[in-house]
Amino acid sequence: MTLMSVEQLTKTYQSTNVVDNISFTLEPGKCVALLGPNGAGKTTTLRMLAGFIKPTSGTINFSEENFKKDVRNYVGYLPQFPVFHNWMTGEEFLIYVGQLSHLSKQEAKARAHELLELVNLIDARKQRISKYSGGMKQRLGIAQALIHHPKLIILDEPVSALDPIGRREVLNLIRELKKDATILFSTHILNDAEEISEEILLLHHGKMIKQGSIEEVSDSQDTVSIRLAFSEEPKFIEERLKEIDSVFKVVRQEHGFIITVHDLNAARNQLLDTIKNEDWQLTKFEVAKSSLEDIFMKAVTE
Amino acid sequence: MQWTTIFKKELLENWRNFKWIWVPIVFILFAIMDPLTAYFLPRILETVGGLPEGATIDFPMPSVAEAMMMSFNQLGMIGVLITIVISMGLVSSELKSGVYELILSKPVSYTNYITAKFTSILLLVSVALLASILVAWYYINILFGSISFTQILISTFFFIIYFMLILGIVMLFNTFFKSQGMVAFLSIVTIIAINAITSIYSHVLTWSPGLISDYIGVYFYSGEIETETWFSLAIAIILTIICLMIAITTLKNRAIE
User: Fold this and answer.
1) Would you tell me the crossing angle of helices B212-222 and B149-176 to the nearest 10 degrees?
2) pLDDT tens-digit readout, B119-133
3) Of A73, A85, A141, Cβ closest to residue B107
4) ipTM surpasses cut 0.95
5) Could B17 and A52 be called an inter-chain contact, meaning their C-beta atoms sit closer than 8 Å?
């Protein structure tokens, strides 16, 4: 069962396609990262999915029994730079948006209290939001997105603007939320995507250039990197390495070399044989799984 | 339900930023200023002096109706300006700050959003108008003579309809621009234009809302409500509804940057 299916979604602003014909599906219970450099169309995509800007063309289908017209009833959204009514207290704001989401006053109150506990703002609930720190505002932003028990939680750059501690808190929170909702979040920080998401969607210039689980996306790479380091660098080593059949590319780095190969097994044997025969002082031999960053850089620069 | 939520939030906001205090006070001050000055001016001049020896100036004491109209005219100028100032950011400031994006991500109906905001500010302005006119009436009763309470209530009601139209116009421009200055400027220009066109073609445009305060004057002097009054009130109400409807549509189709 899919929670949301998106087909040929396009948004045009002043004759440029900010989002260009993208299609994908969201499965329930998954945490999906929407990756892409700045200006790739991530925010526009998320806003369309959250149901408050209309696509130029394409369809977004939300599968839900007794679906009530407005998708906003089922989606919680955190903007990239959440702004609140600063004259309200955190608690008041949550009750306010709860009631906007058709909760009764009592329900909104109970839910607000629950969420303030969850995001660890319970002690600051009576404080005006204007007194909150950046991290606290971000957590309040997440709490307001959850107020009406959404099936899908959309977070726009939830951790990009935070310091390491705030970032850690929010990532842990997202991990917590994964248990009972589907999460779609955008980021340009690859580590975060790798850390908490099961699937990635890679967006560039409004086009979807890669999608799938992290393993799938990594496996689709046809090359593997091997890192080598030596305690004492042998003479002509760069040339010698290049002579090996299975080695595709050699790049010198600060401490050692990165070797790109197509066939890992063949390359490993040949490399280790050479190293043993020549008695090179090897200190590091590492097969680097191509990281998201490699994939990202490769896809974006192509 | 949702409508009440937004309405209450607006009331609370206007309470916390003291609009519920200062707006009525300023309205009251301007409403009583002119009648009081007119009454006390001869005495002030006498006490302060500075008049040449033997000079006597006879100030004709305004009639009750004239004094009452002084209050209405002040409110028609300064009151309108204050009304524009307190409502110029109702939507535009939320658009600009970005809080609108967050509110919009909730299942909020545009109609509720606009009409609840409109009604809450209309309530504030109505209370300020009623308070200021009642205070002015109290002083005028003491200083100039009596005028019937019903007449005061009815004319205040007419005036509130006029202010409702002004709020409708400000609401409309609120959805066009993020800049509060722009909203205020265009609202003022529109109101001046309505009044100018009305006074140029006053013999044709007898149903113009711009004439409402004139009709209030007629009512005070003659004690009779002219038939045209009802038509201009009806036009004001219709125009307000049109303004709000356009505002709702504009907001619906507005792209968020």
Assistant:
1) 180
2) 999 999 999 999 999
3) A73
4) no
5) no
